[in-house]
Write a structure and sequence with these properties.
This protein is an alpha+beta fold. The protein has two domains: about 90 residues, 2-Layer Sandwich (Methyltransferase, Cobalt-precorrin-4 Transmethylase, Domain 2), CATH 3.30.950.10; about 55 residues, no CATH class. It is built from seven helices and five strands, in the order βαβαββαβαααα. It has a five-stranded mixed beta sheet. α1 crosses α2, α2 runs antiparallel to α3 and α6 packs across α7.
Length: about 160
């Protein structure tokens, strides 16, 4: 991802978009903002496994590994200095979580994402498709089918 936005609201929105990322998220952060970023990431992404890397490939290289909450605590005790790279592992998926996602209609999930995560319709559909392991085109097809069925039921 590179650098997140400096402003808190914009940073939090960027993290919301990364919530369903199924790959390791790599961020660069300034030392004076890293504690806020870790706290925001923990709140939005959950208490994922992470690594805070400092001064990589240099003399004072340091790695702090653990959950985001643990890294946040360590930053409270000993603030980071220098060039910071934050690596955040993908969310650990449970079977129950994936069943909940597919039991909800795709249209309902898109609406939910639009309101909760403040995503536009196109981005919400992309997220819903990814959650279900569908292509965007297949998810759009399901969405259209659900809307057509809903309209038909209203007429009857």
């Amino acid at each position: 991802m590179g650098f997140l936005p400096n402003r808190s609201g914009e940073r939090r929105r960027a993290l919301e978009h990364l919530r369903i990322e199924d790959r390791t998220i790599i961020l660069y952060e300034a030392p004076h903002r890293v504690a806020e970023t870790v706290a925001d990431a923990q709140e939005i992404l959950g208490d994922r496994t992470a690594c805070l890397a400092r001064e990589v490939t240099k003399l004072h290289e340091e790695f702090r590994r653990g959950k985001l909450s643990e890294i946040g605590e360590s930053l409270g005790e000993r603030p980071a200095r220098g060039e910071i790279t934050l690596l955040i592992a993908p969310e650990e998926h449970s079977a129950a979580g994936s069943q909940v996602a597919t039991s909800q209609s795709i249209a309902a999930r898109v609406e939910e994402l639009m309101h909760q995560a403040k995503l536009d319709r196109k981005e919400a559909l992309k997220v819903a498709a990814k959650e279900r392991g569908l292509t965007r085109r297949a998810a759009y097809g399901q969405l259209v089918e659900e809307q057509d069925l809903e309209e038909k039921n209203k007429k009857d």
